[in-house]
Design goal:
By secondary structure, the protein is mostly beta strands. The chain has 6 helices and 28 strands.
Amino acid sequence: MRPLMFCLLLLAPLASAAQQSGADAAASPSQTAPVQTEFHVKYVSGTNVYIDAGRDAGLAEGTKIVLKQEPAKADDNDAAVQPGVVAKLTVISVATTSAVCQVDETTRDLAVGDVLSLPETEVEQMVAKNAISNTRVYPMVVSFSEGDPLDEEVRDAIPHPPLPEINQSRGRIGFDFSIIHGLGNNGFSATMFGMVARADITRIAGTYWNLNGYWRGRIQSSQAPAQSSIQDLINRTYQMSLNYINPQSHWTAGIGRLYLPWASSLEVIDGGYVARSMSSTSIVGAFMGSTPDPTAWNYNPDRKLSGGFMNFHGGSWENFRYSSTEGAGVQLLKWSVDRPFFFSENDFSYKRVFSLYHSMQIDRPTANPDSPAINFGVGQSLLSLRVQATPRIEFELQDTYFRDVPTYDESLVGTGLLDKYLFQGVSGGSRVQLPFRVTGYFDVGKSNASTDKKDSWNTMVGASMSRIWKTELTVDARYSKFDSSFASGEYRTLSISRDIGEKFRLNIQGGKQSFASSVSQDTGGYFVNALVDTNLGSRYFVESSFTTQRGGMDQYNQFTSTFGIRFDNRSHARMAANAQKP
């Protein structure tokens, strides 16, 4: 008994001090674990963005991040206006000190050095998570080695609150009605019914499965138009996937319409992947799917592909960082072997100074009947070098090569979604942030393929300005002229957008484009695509869009209206928490 009493006498002052410390911490919220709310873009690869924070900063798969416009300066006389949202991103892969984000919506291209931040809803979630995690300060508990079984049974029966990310669900589901009228000699009329769904559901039923993304599809059509409209093609660039991410497991998987996280150069696939971490720096896996995205260089709805890969990665965003993926597979066309292929994707970066990205595919396409056989060779190669000269000036050098004619849908040329494929050969450009929230950019190069009779210049110039005249509007204008072995043409576009959180979204894009290639001939046409999306109260939303095409191969008007319901189970938790406040 004496040793036990002696131990209690020693622990009593410590317990008292710990209790006082806990009381002080409770009285001073500033002493709780800090929440990092700002992150920096370290590298951009297609629709994927690498940032300089990861699991240590509280990020997890499915976390939403935004890029906001710079706040007004003191002499702008509009300092009270909140900065608008330029881009919305979702974290799709997390490491200890870095993460990969998928760009969901954006009004301009993201660049190295951009400052991303957590929206208010994500900050609230992290604060709630920290409040019940091991970052809280608790008083020291002194207990006997042999306790009262009845007391322990009662203690175990007390319900423990689940982690905030478990069964968190938000999104919306709606039904749309669309009418399209053909003009000119190809007059027709079609009525279409469809659905739209957006979901962000984490830790479903307490598991490590997460559902994230956006889907829009057609349910019924009275008469299918001969050619897809611009709005229909844009709708088919959606991504929605069910992913298994368990920090305590070596396995990860995904199914749906998605990018392979370690090889985005394979483009979006309708299918899935499974991978296993062999060590802290290596991953092996397999994938299978089809190629449904009309903006992909290898687009063909009848094409399937499958294969395996291995990824090696390491380093730190604060110093040198590398990631290298190699793999092999086979492409099928209507379930017949079209081409076996090998692929590689490598990116290297050093702090904010430079980043180097290269993707390549070596394949052997099946030759047409009565044609000579084709040997293995480089079918596609994309090289990009970015140098951040100053925080406001970035330079980029690119080299684009395709052996075969890319199969993207040329109707989307004027939307800017195909810019990275239109230039062939070496090109260089820059992005400069100017005063008055203006950003200018350009890209110039020469196409000098062996099949060209002479070298031809490729040019793309543009500028964007945000928060024009205190209206929160963002305007982007660009002009592009391209001429290569596979295609030639030009386009001019002007886009106007405004985004007020999740309550209101406006986007208007119009322009003129002409496109000529070995598989199509478009003499030129005008298009306008307008969309308005707004919430009706806290539960419903309505969306309306109008698309028109004049000239060129297709002439039509399309009207679409969508009505649906929004859901967010976190709102009930916030209301209950506020109701309990004194």
